[in-house]
Amino acid sequence: MNTYYARPFFIIFFPLLLYYMNLLLLFIISLGTVVAFAASPALNIFVLAFSTPIIAWNFTWASFEIPFSDIIAIFSVLVVLGAVLLNFKKYQNKLYLPLFFPFLLFIASYLISLLNHPQAFSGLYYIIRWLILLYFAYLLIPSILIKDEKKLKITLWSLALSSLLVTISGYLSLLGQDWRDSFFRLNAISIKGIYPYGSNHNLIAEFLVAGAFIWLAIKEFYSNNQRRIFDVLFLLSLVAAILSFSRAAWISIFLQLSVWIYWKNKHNFKKYASFWLLTVISTVIILLPLFWRMQILQTDNVSSTENRWLLTEIAYEAWQEKPLIGHGAGYFMNIVADNIRFTAKYGEAIDSHGFLQKIAVESGLIGLFSWLFLLSVIIKKAVTSLRRYQNQAPYLLPLWLAAGGAMIIQIFNTSYFKGKVWLIISIALIASKLVAEKYGKKD
After folding, report:
1. How high is the pLDDT of residue 160?
2. Which run of H or E residues covers position 66?
3. What's the rounded Cα separation, in Å, for the pair 47 and 76?
4. What is the tens place of the pLDDT at every residue in 116-168?
5. Burial of residue 96 (number of CB atoms within 10 Å: 0-12, 13-18, 19+)
6. β-pairing, 58-61 with 64-67?
7. Which site among 5, 139, 144, 170 is 20 to 30 Å from 296 CA-CA?
8. Rg of the chain on CA atoms, in Å
9. Is residue 355 helix, strand or coil?
C-alpha cells in the first residue's frame, strides 16, 4: 500500500527536486564565477582579451541576439565596476580614464544626432549598445585591471593565443578547397555549424593584421634563445592575413611593415634604403603569379568593389541631405535598406564599409570632426610614446603597429565599434602609460 502511494509522489516531485537542484547548482557556479573574476584581475582580463574575436557565436533570447564576446564584455563590466564601487577608496586615486574627453565628445555628437533620428529610442539603444559598452568594456576595464607589466604580458598572451586559433582555423579552411580550377583563399571554418570568428574572410584578416604584431611585442619580453619561435608565429599570422586575399588587409600590412622598417632603421635609413627597396621589389615579383591567378579566378572581386563604391555613393548622398548632425545613430542600415539600387542588386542591407562614411552619415560633420579629433589624440600619444620610450621598451613599436593595423583596416571594413579593434588600442595606451611611469617621464 505504501509503495502504491509513493510511486505517484516520486513521479511528480522527483523532477521538481532535480529542477531546483540544478538551479541551486547553477547559482553556486555563477556565484563562484563572479567571485573568481572579481578577486582575480588577471583571470578577468585574460578571458576578456581571449574572447574579443568571437563575434559570430550568437546566443538568442526571445528576439534579442548577442555574441559571446559581448556577453563576456558585459559580465566583466558588471563584475569589475561592482568590485570598484564596493572598495572605492582603494581605486579612487588609481582610476585612469583613457581617451575620456575625446571619446565623450564623440558620444555627445551621436547623442546630438538623435535630434534627426526618426526613432530616437532606437538610436539611444545603439549608442548604449555599441559606444558606451565599448568604452566601459574595452577602454575603462582594461585600465583598471592592467596595473603592471605582469598583467600586460598576460593580456598580450591572451590576445596572441586567440590570434593563433584564428590563424589555425584559417589554414584548416584551405583543406578541401579546389586549388587548381577555382579561387581559393584562407577563410573561417565552422564548428557544428557555428562560425565563431565570422564566415567572411575580412573578419579573419582584420584580427590577424593586429595579432601578427602582438607576437612581436611578446617577443621583446624574452631572451634571444626563445625569440625565433615568435618570429615564426609572426610570419605564419602575416601570411595567413595575406592569403585571406583581403585587399584591406594588404593595404594595412603594407603600411604597418613600412612604418616598422622605417622606425627600426630610421637612423641608418639611407644606408639600408636600397636593400629594403630591393626586398620590396623582389617580394612583389614573387607574389605576382599568385595575384595574377587571383584576378583570373576571383569572380566576386569586381562585385565587391562595386558594392563598396555603391555604399560610398549612398553615404555621400545621405550626408548631403543632413550634413551637420547626420541622420541619427545607427541609421545607416535603414538608409541602405531604402535604397532601391542596392537592394535590387545585392538584396539585404549591410553596414558601411568604412567608419568615415558611416560616421558622416549618422552624426554629420560634428561627429566626423569629433572622430578625427579622437584619432588625432591616439596618434599623438603613439608618436610621443615611441619617441620617448622606444629604446627602453621596444615592445611599444609592435604594440602600436598592431593598434594602427586594427584601425587602418576599418577604413574599409565594418568592425569599427568592436572589442577586437579597441582592446588593442587600449592595451597600447596602457602600455605607454606604464612605461612612462616606470621611466619617470609623464605626458
Report:
1. 96
2. strand 64-67
3. 9
4. 999 999 999 999 999 999 999 999 999 999 999 999 999 999 999 999 999 99
5. middle
6. antiparallel
7. 170
8. 25
9. helix
Pairwise CA distance, residues 101 & 123, whole Å? 22
C-alpha cell at 311: 555604399
The DSSP bridge partners found for residue 396 are none
Q: Which residues lie below 8 Å from residue 99, measured CB to CB, with a gap of 6+?
A: 139, 374, 377, 378, 429
Dihedral angle of Cα 35, 36, 39, 44, to the nearest 10 degrees: -120
Rounded CA-CA distance 66/353 in Å is: 22
| Extents of the domains making up the chain | 98-438
The C-alpha atoms of residue 423 and residue 139 are separated, in whole angstroms, by 7
More confident residue, 187 or 283: 187
- C-alpha span between 402 and 328 (Å, rounded): 31
DSSP per position, 402-416: HHHHHHHGGGTSS-T
Which residue has 575580412 as its cell numbers?
202
Rounded to an integer, the average pLDDT of 171-175 is 87
How many residues does the structure list for the chain? 443
Spatial distance between the Cα atoms of 211 and 420, rounded to a whole number of angstroms: 10
Q: DSSP label at 191?
A: B
pLDDT, one tens digit per residue, over 135-149 is 999 999 999 999 999
Distance CA 236, CA 335 (A): 40
Cell reading at 182: 577555382
Contact 173, 188 (CB under 8 A): yes
Burial 109-134 (b: 16+ CB within 10 A, else e): bbbbbbebbeeeeebbebbeebbebb
